[in-house]
Amino acid sequence: MIDTQDFVAARRLIRRYANLTPICTSSSLDAICKAEIVWKCESFQKVGAFKFRGAINAVFSLPKEEAARGVATHSSGNHAQAVALAAKMAGIPAHIVMPENAPPVKVAAVKGYGGKVRFCPPTLEAREAGQKKVIEETGATFIHPSENLRVITGQGTALLELLEQAPELEAVLVPVGGGGLASGSARAAALFHPGLKVYGVEPEQADDAWRSLTTGKLVRPEHPDTIADGLRTALGPNTFSILSQHLAGIVTVSEQAILDALRLIWERMKLVVEPSAAVPLAAFLENKVPELTGKRVGIILSGGNVSFPEWS
In this protein, which residues make up the domain named Tryptophan synthase beta chain-like PALP (predicted)? Predict the structure, then answer.
C-alpha cells in the first residue's frame, strides 16, 4: 500500500519537472452548482493533463539498467503523451500502443514527444495484447496507465497541491477512468486530510467503476462508448482496492450532461478542457451529489487535450 513517505518522495521529484498548476473560481458556476467550487487546472500541466505527474514519478524511479531498455504503455492519449515526454526527458525510448479511435491531436502529440506509436483495435483486450507484444519485442518496462503504484502516487500529488492552495475544501470530485487519479487522490486524502471526502464521477456509458464499487466485485468494461475518451479504460486490482477503502462515493452522468458541462466550462470559465475533465461538473448539473450543496468543493480539471473540429 502507498504510504506517506511515497507521497513525500513523489512531491519532491515531481516539483523538479512538473508545473505547479493554478486554481480558479467562477461565481456563475457556483450559482448553478449551489456550491463553492475551486477548480484545479491540470489542463495547464505539461502534456496538458495530470497524467504527467504519474508518468514522471514512475519513469524517473526506475533503476538505471531497467530504464535503459525503455518504457512502454497503452493509452488513448494523455498517459501516452505523458510517458512519451517523461521518457524523452530521461533520454530513453518510449513504445506506445494506442487505439485506432484515439483523438488525432493526442496521437500527434505522442509522436511529437518522440513516442513510437503502434495502433490497435479500440478494445481493452486489444490494447493489452498489443502491449504484451511490444514488451516481448523490446524488453521495455511496462508503465501501466493506472495500476502502477508510482503512477497512482504521482497522480495523488494533484490533490495535495490543491489542498495547499485551498485548504478549506470539504470534498473533491475527480473523473474516473482507470482510477489512477481517483485512487491517488483518495489515498492521499486518507493519509494527509482524513476529513476530506473524495468522490468519483464516471460516464454512464463507461460505468465499470460504478458497477465494480457498488457490487464489491471488479467488473470488466462492456464496450465503453463515451465522448469522454479518457475515461473508457477500466479499474484494476490496485485501483479497485484503494477506491473500495477510501472513496466517499461514485456517481455516473449522461453524455448530454457531459456536453453541457463542457460548454459551460468553455463559455463561462474560458478554459479549454476535454470532455473527461467536464465529467465532475456534470454530476452537479444532474444533481447527482446533493450532499455537496452549500459545501466548499474542489474539482480537478483533468486535461485539456482536445481539438475543436471534434465537436463541430
Answer: 20-303
Cα separation of the two ends of the chain: 44
- CB 60: neighbour CB atoms within 10 A? 17
Which residue is catalytic, options 26, 76, 146, 185? Answer: 76
3-class SS string, 104-121: HHHHHHHHHCCCEEEEEC
Half-sphere exposure of 263 (CA within 13 A, CB side): 9
111 has catalytic annotation: no
Q: Which three cell numbers stand for residue 199?
A: 468522490
User: At 201, which amino acid appears?
Assistant: V
Torsion, Cα of 86, 54, 234, 205 (10° steps): -90
Query: With 60 as the cut, is the pLDDT of residue 111 above it?
Result: yes
pLDDT category of residue 309 using cuts at 50, 70 and 90:
low
Question: At residue 306, what is the residue type?
Answer: V
Residue type, 303: G
Q: 180-192 and 237-246 are packed helices; what angle lies between their axes, rounded to 10 degrees? A: 40
d(CA 23, CA 39): 5
Which of 26, 43, 46, 51 is an active site residue? 51
Confirm whether 185 is a catalytic residue.
no
> Domains of the chain by range and CATH?
4-50+148-311 (3.40.50.1100), 52-142 (3.40.50.1100)
Nearest-angstrom CA–CA distance, 22 and 216: 36
Q: Which three cell numbers stand for residue 104?
A: 488525432
Residue 121 is placed in which grid cell?
483495435
pLDDT of residue 101: 85
